[in-house]
Design brief:
CATH class of the largest domain: Alpha Beta
Catalytic activity: a 2'-deoxycytidine in DNA + S-adenosyl-L-methionine = an N(4)-methyl-2'-deoxycytidine in DNA + S-adenosyl-L-homocysteine + H(+)
Distance between the termini: 15 Å
Shape: globular
Pfam families: N6_N4_Mtase
Mean pLDDT: 90
Radius of gyration: 22 Å
CATH topology of the largest domain: Rossmann fold
GO molecular function: DNA binding; N-methyltransferase activity; site-specific DNA-methyltransferase (cytosine-N4-specific) activity
Protein name: site-specific DNA-methyltransferase (cytosine-N(4)-specific)
Number of helices: 13
Enzyme class: transferase
Length: 434
């Protein structure tokens, strides 16, 4: 294996959370510097195309575009599309952002009554007065910054293509405001937020408090806004859309490079973490539309009713791991956990095939992945990706490991019953398509 270049630790550190990366704290993300160094070390000509099929909060698309590359970012969660779009905002508008936020607040305060005559998803957590406060700000954002919107629409009803990076910026500020007032519903698990039971007291806040918090979020985002463009090329272009990694909306051999972090095999429910934002967009936390998003996420803890079996194309390491899970003596090994792992590897392999289809000859893939355990059984995810890659005629050119002291495995205290340590290893794999 040739060491083509030094690989930087992808982990976001406290000191590394600067600029646009501070706008929205997303658990599943790597640092902007990691993306920047990966692109620089690849010697990819400016103007080439870079894709992230699990784009999340948009770090890959942001840095790629700022460096002069055409970027494509996809995610199954519509909340992430708004956040990634916000990160496209050009530094030249920074001086006008506070003034626009004042216009939004002035307009929001002129709305006297509720304009929504149906049950609002935000009522899951907030009183009607508070819901009106959030919706009035949203209504002002839509009427000032989104073309052809009269009255109010839930964001899920609006084509994301017409949502500018400027409008998305203020939506992210509104997302932050939501999370600020829902702090009491956070759990020890950073990817989970509680939904109050029927009859439990809801958050009661005034429209004045909401507007003030929204303005503070805008100010914090403005203060963190730095110019990180490294090229004179203006707006090389970025496509950011809702799409599944198993069905990428691109033609064959269109992409020069992939930088991404596939969902870890740790049964993290990223959708639940964004329930408030999804509710703001018009999705009901307890309805089928949320369940549909959860079911489509690779790595979801939910079980989809479909008969899956181990495929030889997943490789021998994967097959051996699944067989050990099947035969494990612990409760639900075969009835739940095996099915969950089958779902995961089925989704990962389909995604790798789609990446292969869209990747040009000699194109590079950089993956950030993490190992895990089922009880005492080690999931050697690096070997599994390597075997799947070999079957797709990919060559592993570089692998670098980084201990992850703050992984989700450390939250599950039951893991210590089966093994001496619960630390995970994050690995960066660099493949080249032959």
């Amino acid at each position: 294996m040739s060491n083509l270049f030094m690989i930087q630790n992808p982990k976001r550190t406290i000191g590394g959370k600067v600029g646009k990366s501070t706008w929205y704290d997303y658990y599943a993300s790597y640092s902007a510097q990691f993306v920047r160094e990966s692109i620089l070390n690849s010697n990819l000509p400016v103007g080439s195309s870079i894709m992230d099929p699990w784009n999340g909060s948009g770090t890959t698309t942001q840095i790629a575009e700022e460096m002069g590359y055409i970027s494509y970012g996809y995610d199954i969660n519509p909340v992430m599309i708004i956040i990634a779009k916000a990160k496209r905002l050009e530094h030249s508008v920074k001086d006008s952002l506070f003034s626009v936020s004042n216009d939004i607040i002035k307009k929001a305060r002129r709305y006297r009554k509720s304009f929504c005559d149906i049950t609002d998803p935000l009522e899951t957590w907030f009183t009607q007065e508070a819901v009106n406060g959030f919706r009035n700000i949203e209504r002002a954002i839509q009427q000032l910054l989104i073309n052809d919107i009269t009255g109010h629409k839930f964001l899920k009803e609006i084509n994301s293509d017409i949502i500018s990076s400027l409008a998305a910026f203020y939506y992210v500020a509104l997302f932050r405001t939501l999370k600020f007032f829902l702090a009491e519903y956070k759990c020890s698990n950073p990817t989970w937020i509680k939904v109050p039971k029927d009859g439990e007291q809801k958050v009661k806040i005034s429209a004045y408090e909401i507007c003030n918090s929204f303005q503070q979020s805008v100010i914090l985002m403005i203060n963190a806004f730095t110019d990180t463009h490294t090229t004179s090329i203006s707006n090389p272009g970025a496509v950011i859309k809702v799409a599944s990694s198993t069905s990428i909306p691109l033609t064959d051999k269109q992409i020069d490079m992939v930088i991404t972090s596939p969902p870890y095999c740790t049964r993290i429910d990223y959708v639940v973490n964004t329930l408030p934002e999804l509710a703001l967009m018009g999705f009901f936390p307890t309805k089928e539309d949320i369940q549909k998003i959860r079911n489509e996420m690779i790595g979801t803890p939910t079980i989809i009713k479909s008969a899956l079996t181990t495929e030889t194309s997943w490789g021998s390491v994967c097959s051996q791991f699944l067989e050990k899970v099947r035969n494990h003596e612990s409760k639900a090994s075969e009835s739940y956990y095996l099915k969950n792992y089958l779902q995961y590897f089925n989704g990962i392999y389909k995604s790798l095939k789609e990446i292969d289809r869209t990747l040009k000859h000699n194109g590079k893939c950089i993956f950030v992945i993490q190992d895990s355990y089922y009880k005492e059984i080690h999931l050697d995810i690096v070997s599994i990706y390597n075997e799947m890659g070999n079957l797709l005629s990919w060559k592993l050119e570089n692998k670098t490991d980084f201990p992850n002291k703050h992984s989700m495995s450390g939250i599950n205290k039951n893991g210590s019953k089966y093994r001496k340590h619960t630390k995970a290893t994050e690995s960066v794999l660099v493949f080249r398509k032959l």
